[in-house]
Amino acid sequence: MSKDIGIFGNQTMGQEFLAGLEKKQFMFSLVISYTDTCTIPGITIAGKNPDLLAYTPPADAEFLNFGYCRCIDAIPMSPDGKPTPGLLTKTALEAASISNVVINAGSKIAPKLPYFETGLDYGKNIAVEPAMPLDSVTQAVEYGRMIGRTLGSFTDCLVIGETIPGGTTTAQAVLTGLGVKAKVSSSMPKNPTLLKNKIANDALAKIKSTNPFDVVAAVGDPMIPTVAGMLSTASSLTKVILAGGTQMAAVLAFSKITGYEKKNIAIGTTSYVIDDHTANLVDTIKQIDDIPVISARLALKDSKIDGLRAFADGFVKEGVGAGGASIAAMLKVGIDAKHLLELSEAEYQKTISQSRI
Amino acid sequence: MSKDIGIFGNQTMGQEFLAGLEKKQFMFSLVISYTDTCTIPGITIAGKNPDLLAYTPPADAEFLNFGYCRCIDAIPMSPDGKPTPGLLTKTALEAASISNVVINAGSKIAPKLPYFETGLDYGKNIAVEPAMPLDSVTQAVEYGRMIGRTLGSFTDCLVIGETIPGGTTTAQAVLTGLGVKAKVSSSMPKNPTLLKNKIANDALAKIKSTNPFDVVAAVGDPMIPTVAGMLSTASSLTKVILAGGTQMAAVLAFSKITGYEKKNIAIGTTSYVIDDHTANLVDTIKQIDDIPVISARLALKDSKIDGLRAFADGFVKEGVGAGGASIAAMLKVGIDAKHLLELSEAEYQKTISQSRI
Question: Model's pTM, two decimal places?
């Protein structure tokens, strides 16, 4: 097993999960979505500009596949040079020749590439109104189940990543609504925990039901039920890495009602989420089920590039399935964190050079 | 090798192609599309009613996945009980546990299930105007290449089927425009060859260019360049069965310019297309390239159900990748034509029983 993979929670299950996947075939799926909750000032830095937040998910999908964005004329970086975590995902997938599929689960903007369409609308701002009708939650689960059954039948391990600005806030609200005590992670070093809690609690105060479908309809986002559907069928056929931080905790909490095959599942993330002391991913998962959390110990603190070193200082931390993709690459081809860093630095240089064309 | 598979054209290549696929893993992909050319009176019987023709492709995709149609409240059969060829496809895929993905390449109506979206508009009536802008042909090829690269990386053999009403007429026009002398097959026992030739020749008379992209833009349909793109990348990674009759000949003719790995390709169809003496699939393919035509010798003439026996009498013959799916099932699990017929009869009974609910 790679020296740069850590296991948290149930060690035995984590070791068995990883041992079964060495040198195996992986498929990466990126679920792109949107919630208007991201427009609440102060909850996210994904995207440079509030008006552009809706372009972040399709731009991430495009960057992953082309190395540049098509739906928007911009490089996927903050003005001070912090790249999308998709840069780490792209690097890992290419290093290990892992193919990806994009699933549109309510993105406000469609990506300019082929993607799985689900017909779902984007999620509404939970501070203002319910996230989506109950029918949409049902459809998301059903379509997710179909996608998971198809994709799961073609690989030894389906890695599911997500990109949805504002998604940690809806994840927090869903976890709280389902009775899980969670402190969620953030893309910012100063996690606006109080603001997220207030939004979550205010939104939850408006509903009476504790039925998970009602909770997700009221305070969730379309990504959560779609990935839960995918998890339920895919995990009955093959191994699944839920690649992400606290958003995948919300998926797992909701999945208690949609079902899954426990022994085939791990949460896969980056060491920067694990190290985030304002959040508690491992404890959160433990409250839901005895499922291992696996982390890629990335080496970004050693980078000569400020924008990459920032990940180790608490910015961005995770997203676009970066942790799960890195774990998959380590397992499939044995690449280590140092080599991944070198390739990420080369990808970074290639990406910024586009802005000078 | 299954006794119910026939090889036409290059025998050695056909045998090598088949030998490499026994007991292997297959993926079935269904490309759904539409051309307004189908509204010309007299060229198709796909769909009961001209207004409903546009529902045929999504209904085929839904029937394949659910056993009933969702976008339209009807069973996929003609009033006198001839079923969609998708019934044979569904039977074969289920018999061999082969998963399918649906690709929307310009269907006028979206299916109510998850599908790969390409953003392509449906094709126009080539008797009236150009089928599509040149940009759409380019996009179809590019998106097809991405889809083929992804799907091809997950299977030993990608089977590509299609459903597009009126598609044999656009196929005829493209073949003629590319200098291939073809008599195309039809879903009707009295093939309206003269009408199809006239439509094709009139449409071709309006263009000057013999560039394949221009020909497809003028007289083709969105399915052709999409499947050509899929073929180019998928055949460089794995084996590909182009599942269909003369429409796949048009794809192959256009693919001479988009490229493919010859040794990894076969045309897969039903014996009813091979036996159609108004058409000449094997001769058509020979004019394009030395690629084997493989046929599933189905046993529908022995059916106790009139609607299935009609296939052997020259109705429908092929479609929704029925021939290729049957070949895939025979290769993967060794099922024979007799057993497939029994399962098809059961599926038929199940399907008509829905209309009595």
Answer: 0.94
